[in-house]
Predict the structure.
Amino acid sequence: MKILYVCTELYPLLKTGGLADVGAALPAALQAAGCHVRLLLPAFAAIAAGVRADGPAVPLPAAGGPQVLRTLQPAPRLIPGHVIESGQPVYLLDAPALYQREGGPYQDAAGQDWSDNAARFALLGWAAAALAYGADPHWQPDLVHAHDWHAGLAPLYLKLQANGRPAKPSVFTVHNLAFQGLFPASSCAELGLPQSLFTIDGLEYHGLLSFMKAGLQFADTITTVSPRYAQEITTSEQGCGLDGALRSRSEHLSGILNGVDYELWNPATDPLLNAHFDGKRMTGKARVKRALQRLLGLEERPDALLFAAVTRLTEQKGLHLLPPILPELVERGGQVVILGSGDDAIETALRDALERHPGQAALRIGYDEALAHRIIAAADVVLVPSRFEPCGLTQLYGLRYGALPLVHAVGGLADTVTDCSLEAIDDGSASGFVFHEFSSDALRGAVRRAFALRRRSADWNAVQRHAMHQRFDWQEPAHAYRALYQRLLSIPV
Ligand code: ADP
């Protein structure tokens, strides 16, 4: 089974969120599960700089147009300067005028969406279809797996370019429904898409062209990254205006939980830590905590309950719920560390709140992979109070590193964390703290429960051990995707 995996981010070369982690880990897991996977990504400068050419370029069927370059994916290793090639082939869509520029993959340095995003990502979908129908004479996928709105036109182009042949099947995975790729109606003609598709049952979304909706309408199968989120997005509360479209395709919609790459996220071997630990020997965790407290100017109190968040600072992530409860949290002897970047207003509100507690609270603005590992390893509790969360990765990292997740009961957070109710503690299933109403008061309740459990050290240790033993690796999700591909290709599962 040959699969073309179409996405825009690839850890460690280019990452704005979990999409990059998945892009690095899932193709390799699929390969291990017996699929032949190649990736297609835009040749963004950061990606092109990190891979090496491997074979001749593939011209695409457009006069003087772009070409795809065959390269090898670097294995996701953290050690700087040691990019090891894993042998997984990548096609880079080489269109310098569209992709080689300063700034982010979707936005310029000032945070404004690139004005030509419609053309930039339409080309990605179009190139996927071109490869599917034989642009590379040496390799033709059986199926295209497109990720998020950036690749949302791929399923449509597969239908449009079929030219009387049976259309190649496609899977479309929604990593975050809130980012939809909306463009003026005029883009439809500019991109050469048939105007007849600009309807409510097609590409139209409140008078705009929606790449996300294209993926939802034209993919043969839709997946999202947790079973709970798959249900939630069919409701008006969480459907971002696309719940109707999703309900109409509900028989083709399912949720497959993301996994974690435990080669990168393992407290017993993590090269970014000053000490190591596992479920049996936890003294290393105390040393990591002390080193982090020193690094960030926190009081070096081993018994301080350390709450941490590593996150984009956007409304979605819910950290604006924290400031009202910070005084109580510190009063109870807790400490807080936040690493993130994002909205100016949220950054400012957090800075104002945390600065009032010198020695007990620290904020680091920015993106820092190494610090992220050290924070998760040092923390007692990982905060993930997201308003909505398709899957979430940091709660899974927290489980592995014995930092109990404290989460809002939505999406993948609800699917992966079991609250420390007395029943759950008793039956050994408890792994964290879960609150249900999206409010500072509900967050406060969960924080209090964390302090209460910490005072019962035998229970705390049992919950922590259970959390650390849980495994959310990529093997199971890869088998679930493979079964989906097999069904689409009518191969017996
Ligand atoms: P999302 O994709 O919505 O941002 P996820 O939890 O799925 O959220 O994935 C976020 C990924 O990005 C995780 O691997 C997390 O560790 C990482 N991350 C987020 N913010 C930062 C940061 N400021 N520094 C380092 N890593 C970060």
The chain has 19 helices and 19 strands. The domain at 2-259+474-488 is CATH 3.40.50.2000 (Rossmann fold). Residues 75-85 have pLDDT under 50 and may be disordered.
